[in-house]
Structures are given as C-alpha cells and as structure tokens.
Design brief:
The chain has 114 residues and is mainly alpha-helical. It is rod-shaped and about 140 Å long. One of its GO terms (biological process) is FtsZ-dependent cytokinesis.
C-alpha cells in the first residue's frame, strides 16, 4: 500500500505543480495585458498632447505669416513714399517752396458762422 500511496501523492503533487504553473502563466499573461493596455493609454495621451501642441504651432505660424505679409505691405508703402519724393525731385524738378513763399489758409470754424 505504501507504493500506491506514494503514487497517489506524486500524482497529486504533479497536478498541484501543473495547476500552479497554469496559475502563474495566467497571472503573467494578465499582467502583460494590463501593462500593454496601460502603455496604450499613455501613448494615446501623448499623441493627443503632441497633436494639440502641433495645432497651436500651426495656428501661431499662420498668425506670423499674416503679420509678415502686413509688414511687407507696410514696408512697400513707406518705401514708395520716399521713392515718389525722389522721382518728383529728379524727374519733374519739383521742390518744396521756401517758408517766405508759403501761405497758411485757415478755414472759418463752425462757431464763427453762427
């Protein structure tokens, strides 16, 4: 009987170790799934953060391009004013009159008309 009892105990022990191995394997797989799911959540969060930051930068780029265009127009406007004055003097021989030849005309105000 002792041999039979030892055989039963060995079968139980082998079943015990097999069931423990399965439990450990399942636990390990569940742990890997949990870690994978957590990493997916972090990656999605990081992607959304980066996308929000990129759209902010693109909006800022559009604003800067619009301001650059306005500055170019302003520069051309001021540049053309001096260019007009230079051409008036050189090509049309125009000049500013001396202060003695200048006459200031003042318009009557509305209060004086009454």
């Amino acid at each position: 009987m002792k041999a039979e009892e030892l055989e039963v105990i060995e079968n139980q022990a082998s079943r015990f170790t097999v069931s423990h191995k399965k439990i450990i394997a399942y636990f390990f797989l569940v742990l890997l799934i949990f870690i994978s799911a957590t990493m997916v959540v972090f990656e999605v969060f990081e992607y959304r953060h980066d996308y929000r930051q990129m759209t902010t930068y693109l909006r800022e780029e559009d604003d800067l391009n619009a301001e650059w265009g306005r500055l170019l127009i302003e520069q051309q406007t001021f540049g053309s004013t001096s260019q007009i004055g230079t051409r008036a003097v050189t090509q049309l021989r125009m000049f500013s009159p001396p202060t003695a030849d200048t006459v200031v005309i003042s318009l009557p105000s509305l209060e004086q008309k009454k």
